[in-house]
Amino acid sequence: GAGVSQTPSNKVTEKGKYVELRCDPISGHTALYWYRQSLGQGPEFLIYFQGTGAADDSGLPNDRFFAVRPEGSVSTLKIQRTERGDSAVYLCASSFSGERGFSYNEQFFGPGTRLTVL
Amino acid sequence: SQQGEEDPQALSIQEGENATMNCSYKTSINNLQWYRQNSGRGLVHLILIRSNEREKHSGRLRVTLDTSKKSSSLLITASRAADTASYFCATDETGANSKLTFGKGITLSVRP
User: Fold this and answer.
1) Once rounded to an integer, what is the mean pLDDT over residues A24-40?
2) Quick one: which of B42, A112, A88 has its CA closest to A79?
3) Taking CB atoms and an 8 Å cutoff, what residues of chain B touch A101?
4) What was the pLDDT predicted at A106?
């Protein structure tokens, strides 16, 4: 079946603008994760959804970042008043279950959105 | 913050040789996963090893886990030029809501 998809693949914006990044998880996956990867680094966790609710948003760097998943499938990561430091690849992943203690937490990643803030 | 530390940071080998990459971590975990990434884009899941497992195989991949030393190794046997990529270990920490914590990655170059 189809994997995780993300749109757009590339986004160039100007400092101070608002952007939305979209993630379509694998059908049937209840858990959805957003990560951010800077050049030369590993991905860093931003937020995790179990169904429609944000179960853990401890990785969001500040209140300019917000994410929603209103119907428990597609998720949108929203960044307000973008800054040059927000430039990175934003990765989305989904898994069948992210419940605490469930050890088969294979996460399947999308191709990412490369965000460049000028 | 990043928990895993991979070693070495970069590895260059000849096609046909074996590649061994190591990962150390700091906290207790539910499982540890290895991913491959080409050209800084999507991550491909390679293998997951649970905290109560010590060794796992998948094709040319062999993963070991030593929870007493908080370390894991990934062995790729009979490497191919197509194995050239960045490799990351990621830990699913106990009580951490299943989010993954990644290391900085290892750059593997396989010379044809």
Assistant:
1) 93
2) A88
3) 30
4) 82
pLDDT in tens, B48-97: 999 999 999 999 999 999 999 999 999 999 999 999 999 999 998 877 66
Is residue B39 packed enough to be buried (19+ CB in 10 Å), middle (13-18) or exposed (0-12)? exposed
C-alpha to C-alpha distance for A90 and A114, rounded to whole angstroms: 6
Contacts of B31 in chain A (CB under 8 A): 103-105
What integer best gives the mean pLDDT of chain B? 91
Q: How far is A18 from chain B (nearest CA, A)?
A: 23
Say if the Cβ atoms of B98 and A45 lie within 8 Å.
no
A71 at B interface, C-beta within 8 A? no
Angle (CA) A18 A51 A87, round 5° = 30
Q: Provide the shortest C-alpha distance from residue A39 to chain B (in Å).
A: 8
Inter-chain residue contact A33 with B100, CB threshold 8 Å: yes
CB spacing of B50 vs A95 below 8 angstroms: no
